[in-house]
Specification:
349 residues; alpha+beta; Nucleotidyltransferase, domain 5; 5-stranded mixed β-sheet; 4-stranded antiparallel β-sheet; 10 helices; 14 strands; 42% helix
C-alpha cells in the first residue's frame, strides 16, 4: 500500500528559490499546452507524455529543475488532459496558480534521521513531526493559499498481512445534523465549522481584507480535516469492515439551501480517510446504495405508512414502524439498513 507523508518546510530562507523553481514548472506546463495546440492545428495529433518527454529532454539544467520533474509534469499534463477530455488545459501562472514542484524518488535527497532535504541543488529543512515509513517512490513540493510550502512524500509500505474479522462490521449514515451515525447507535455531531466562522469571514470580506479571509478559510479547512481524522480513527480502531451510504455531496450541494451545510460536512474527505485507514489495518470500507434505507424498517424490512418519506419527512427524527411496532431513531435505522445491504452485497461477491 502507499501512504503520503506531508511536512511543512521551514520556508523563510528558501521561499523565493522555491517560487522560482515553480515558475520553471509553469513554463514547462505552458510549453506542453502550446505544443498541443499547434499539434492539433497543423497535424491533428494528440500528443502523449512520451512525445512531450522528447521535446523537453535536456532542459532541466537550464530551468533549475531535476530531470524527473520534467517527466512528472508531462505525465500529469497528459493525464489531466485525458481525464477532462480537453484539447488543452488552463495556463499556469506564478500569480494565479499555487506553486507545485513534482519529482520522483531519485530526484530528491532526504535524510530519514534528520529530515534534511535537498532538491536540484537547493537544501532546506522541514518540521520533522513524525518519522517517515516505507520506501519513497515519488512526491512534490506544494504551496497552500497562505503561501506556506509543504514537502509531500509518497511512500510504499508493506501490505497488512494479519487476520481480519469480517464479522466486525459497522454501517454509517452520513448526514448534516450528525456528520456520521453508526449502526451501533454512536453519533458524531457536526461541528459546523464554516457556519461558526462565517460572520468573521463576512466581516473581513466587507473590509476587503483578502489576506485575513484566506487565513480564516485555511483555519476552517484544517479544523475540518482534524475533526475527520479523529472520528475516522475512532471508527477504524473499533471496526474492520465499514459500510458507508453512497450519499452524493455534489448533487445535494446543487440545492441552494443545503450547499453550505453539505460542503461544511466534508463527507468526501471523511470517506477517503475511512477507506485508506481501514485498508492500512487489513480491513476495508465500501460504499453502499442507501436508497430507501431511511424508509425501510431495519427489523422487519417493510416500508410502512409511518416511515419518513420525501422532503416533508426530513423533520421526522424518530418514528415507529406500523408493521412490527418497533421504534426507530431515523439515522440509526438508516445506518443499520446500510450495514445489512452491505453484507448482502459482500456475500453475493
Amino acid at each position: 500500500m502507499y501512504k503520503t507523508f506531508s511536512y511543512r518546510i521551514k520556508d523563510s530562507t528558501v521561499a523565493k528559490q522555491l517560487h522560482k523553481k515553480s515558475c520553471a514548472v509553469n513554463y514547462v506546463w505552458n510549453f506542453c499546452n502550446e505544443t498541443q495546440k499547434h499539434a492539433l492545428k497543423w497535424s491533428k495529433k494528440w500528443l502523449t507524455n512520451f512525445d512531450l518527454d522528447k521535446l523537453v529532454a535536456g532542459s532541466s539544467k537550464d530551468l533549475g529543475l531535476n530531470s524527473t520533474t520534467l517527466q512528472d509534469i508531462t505525465s500529469e499534463y497528459y493525464t489531466r488532459r485525458k481525464q477532462f477530455k480537453k484539447a488543452f488545459l488552463n495556463w499556469r501562472s506564478g500569480k494565479r496558480s499555487l506553486d507545485w514542484i513534482p519529482f520522483k524518488s531519485t530526484g530528491i535527497s532526504f535524510n530519514k534521521a534528520t529530515g534534511k532535504t535537498k532538491y536540484a541543488g537547493l537544501a532546506f529543512n522541514i518540521w520533522y513531526s513524525r518519522p517517515i515509513e516505507g520506501i519513497i517512490k515519488s512526491g512534490n513540493i506544494s504551496q497552500d493559499s497562505q503561501g506556506r510550502y509543504y514537502l509531500n512524500l509518497v511512500c510504499k509500505l508493506p501490505d497488512f498481512e494479519g487476520p481480519t474479522d469480517h464479522r466486525n462490521a459497522v454501517g454509517i449514515d452520513l448526514g448534516l445534523k450528525d456528520v456520521a451515525t453508526l449502526s451501533d447507535g454512536t453519533h458524531f455531531e457536526a461541528p459546523k465549522l464554516y457556519r461558526k466562522a462565517e460572520p468573521e469571514i463576512a466581516k473581513a470580506q466587507s473590509k476587503k481584507q483578502k489576506r485575513k479571509v484566506r487565513k480564516l478559510h485555511a483555519k476552517v479547512k484544517n479544523q475540518r480535516k482534524d475533526f475527520n481524522h479523529k472520528i475516522s480513527r475512532a471508527i477504524v480502531d473499533r471496526y474492520s469492515v465499514i459500510m458507508i451510504g453512497d450519499v452524493c455531496s455534489s448533487k445535494l450541494a446543487q440545492k441552494r439551501k443545503l450547499a453550505k451545510s453539505v460542503y461544511d460536512a466534508g463527507w468526501y474527505q471523511l470517506k477517503t480517510f475511512l477507506s485508506y485507514k481501514a485498508l492500512a489495518k487489513g480491513g476495508f470500507a465500501k460504499e453502499v446504495d442507501e436508497r430507501y434505507t431511511t424508509q425501510a424498517c431495519s427489523e422487519c424490512g417493510c416500508i410502512s405508512d409511518s416511515s419518513p418519506k420525501g422532503v416533508v419527512g426530513l423533520s421526522i427524527r424518530k418514528w415507529t414502524c406500523s408493521e412490527c411496532g418497533v421504534s426507530h431513531d431515523r439515522d440509526i435505522n438508516a445506518a443499520r439498513n446500510i450495514l445489512s445491504s452491505g453484507r448482502r452485497a459482500l456475500y453475493r461477491t
